[in-house]
Amino acid sequence: MVHPGKFLIMALLAGITFLILFATHVAMPFSIVSASSATEAKSAPIQAITEKPVSQSDRTESTTCGISNSYPQEVHVWCGLIQFSAEKYQLDANLLAAVILQESGGQADAYSSSGAVGLMQVMPRDGIATNFQCVNGPCFSNRPSMNELFDPAFNIEFGSKMLTNLFNRHGNWRDALKAYGPMDVGYQYADLVMSIYQNYQ
Fold first, then answer.
1. 168, 162, 179, 166: which is closest to 53 by C-alpha?
2. Please, what's the largest Cα pairwise distance for the chain?
3. Among the four residues 20, 45, 74, 85, which has the most C-beta atoms within 10 Å?
4. Looking at the annotation, which residues are catalytic?
5. What phi and psi, each to the nearest 5 degrees, are found at residue 14?
6. What is each CA distance from 27 to 13, 125, 142, 160, 174, in whole angstroms?
7. Considering the entire predicted model, what is its pTM?
8. Domain locations in the chain as residue ranges
9. Closest alpha carbon to 126 in 150, 102, 157
10. What is the CATH number of domain 31-199?
11. 95 phi and psi, to 5 degrees?
12. What is the C-alpha separation between 103 and 162, in angstroms, rounded?
């Protein structure tokens, strides 16, 4: 006869193992992988934003840095671009820096396994992202291309516009960040970004 306590212990160990693996995966802010349109995407879609930011030639960098000195150099190197978008979209530059730190660690060439691109890990219309299908067709068909999103200035500005639109839709930063981040982690992403934001002040 099998003792029911053994099943309980096995289920408990399996649950703990799952939590450890999940926490380890979520704690990694990004990964750089090679692009391939043949890779199967496994993430939920994000609603497309149709307007594109201004071109690089129409943009000037701000001369002052509005982000905290606590952020690492990998994020500080983008300070002028962060400040420009923060001013344009009336965002807190430190919040943009927190998103960039979480999403890419400040690496402009970051490319996630789900197809997100650049400093703010925006889903493009091409690459792996073409695998995401919504009711009316490709989920990201109105998004910029991967090539555009690998441009740090373009990426920060487009990501800033997305955040502004999400804040306007949801009315608070926790829900806006939840919508910006991965769809399968609930508020964990939003809380992580807000924690970075608060800890790096």
1. 162
2. 76
3. 85
4. 103
5. -65, -40
6. 21, 27, 30, 23, 18
7. 0.68
8. 1-29, 31-199
9. 150
10. 1.10.530.10
11. -70, -45
12. 14
Residue 24 pLDDT > 90? no
Residue type for position 172: N
d(C-alpha 155, C-alpha 188), whole Å: 23
Residue with tokens 């939840």: 178
Question: Can you tell me the distance from the alpha carbon of 148 to that of 150, in angstroms, rounded to the nearest whole number?
Answer: 6
Mapping DSSP onto H, E and C, the string for the chain reads: CCCHHHHHHHHHHHHHHHHHHHHHHHHCCCCCCCCCCCCCCCCCCCCCCCCCCCCHHHCCCCCCCCCCCCCCHHHHCCHHHHHHHHHHCCCCHHHHHHHHHHHHCCCCCCECCCCCECCCCECCCCHHHHHCEECCEECCCCCCCHHHHCCHHHHHHHHHHHHHHHHHHHCCHHHHHHHHCCCCCCCHHHHHHHHHHHHCC
* CA 123 to centroid of chain Cα atoms: 9
Residue-wise pLDDT for 143-159, tens only, equals 788 899 999 999 999 99
